[in-house]
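Re: that backbone. Tokens:
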């Protein structure tokens, strides 16, 4: 069952701004991973990767339904994606998004040391979701004239 959660209406023309932010965040996370050594503190990589997924989630939700999650709990953001895309959101991509955003508090606020290797695994999951999001974004409904 998909619960509604908190969301707000957003002009669908704004979707590309969120997609561009997501792409920039993903690129930044990859750049951080590229310069990190294996024993580095990887939390920054992970945090940026999580936020890339959140931005892509918003881009798709806005592009398809003109809504954006306003949940303080980012783990509920995939519910908005399901609302916006319905059957077009493959369960494996929704699970991938849920797994990534579920780590947000862990890597951001709980004082857990994330090694580069752990962060790179999270980045790989984020990249998978964001790559799919970019592909489906290109198939978004046209804006009304």
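Recovered sequence:
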């Amino acid at each position: 069952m998909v619960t509604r959660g908190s969301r707000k209406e957003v002009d669908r023309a704004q979707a590309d701004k969120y997609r561009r932010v997501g792409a920039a965040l993903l690129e930044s996370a990859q750049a951080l991973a590229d310069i990190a050594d294996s024993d580095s503190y990887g939390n920054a990589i992970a945090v940026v990767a999580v936020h890339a997924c959140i931005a892509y989630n918003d881009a798709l939700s806005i592009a398809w339904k003109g809504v954006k999650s306003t949940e303080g709990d980012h783990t509920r953001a995939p519910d908005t994606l399901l609302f916006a895309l319905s059957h077009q959101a493959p369960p494996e991509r929704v699970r991938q998004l849920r797994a990534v955003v579920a780590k947000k508090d862990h890597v951001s606020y709980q004082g857990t040391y994330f090694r580069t290797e752990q962060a790179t695994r999270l980045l790989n999951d984020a990249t998978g979701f964001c790559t799919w999001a970019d592909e489906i974004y290109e198939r978004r409904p046209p804006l009304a004239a």
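The mean pLDDT is 90. The first strand starts at residue 7 and ends at 9.
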